[in-house]
Design a protein that fits this description.
The chain is mainly alpha-helical. The protein has three domains: 1-35, no CATH class; 41-87; 95-142. It has helices at residues 3-7, 25-31, 49-82, 95-105, 112-117, 123-129, 138-142. The longest helix has 34 residues, at 49-82. The radius of gyration is 30 Å and the shape is elongated.
Length: 143
């Protein structure tokens, strides 16, 4: 028997988290028509009308705050795009570095590791930009 179930007899009919991971709040509410939330740390008890009101007010405030954050984030991203700023991580290899790497890879005497070392990137980064770095015909990849 689960220790939590002993301390909270109302949970005896529900499977423990070790038995299932599909238990969600709506499915818990389906088992018992009167499900209440009672906070152990805050004076919120949804079994009373005033507790339900406080719970719904907090829920509405949280939803409003999330919407404000989303709107501000989108406005900031739009403003940055208008100023020519693009988000995300900067590219490690410039177009010039890629052209130099392609030219060096045409020489079979130069290894991929040596080509990657020149701009200071890893071999995997070079392969990410040039998937067929050692293909029979690098011209197919270039075009």
């Amino acid at each position: 028997m689960n220790v939590k179930a002993v301390q909270r007899p109302a949970l005896l009919g529900y499977p423990s988290s070790s038995q299932t991971s599909d238990t969600t709040l709506p499915s818990l509410g389906e088992h018992e028509p009167t499900t209440y939330v009672q906070s152990l740390q805050d004076p919120i008890d949804t079994s009373s009308p005033s507790g339900k009101l406080v719970f719904h007010i907090f829920s509405a405030l949280a939803e409003f705050e999330r919407g404000v954050i989303r709107d501000r984030t989108n406005a900031g991203l739009k403003s940055a795009r208008e100023r020519g700023r693009i988000g995300g991580r900067q590219r490690l290899l410039s177009d010039r570095d890629l052209q130099t790497a392609k030219a060096l890879l045409r020489n079979p005497a130069i290894t991929v590791a040596e080509v990657a070392k020149r701009p200071g990137v890893s071999i995997s980064t070079l392969y990410n930009h040039l998937p067929a770095a050692r293909a029979e015909s690098l011209e197919e990849v270039v075009s």
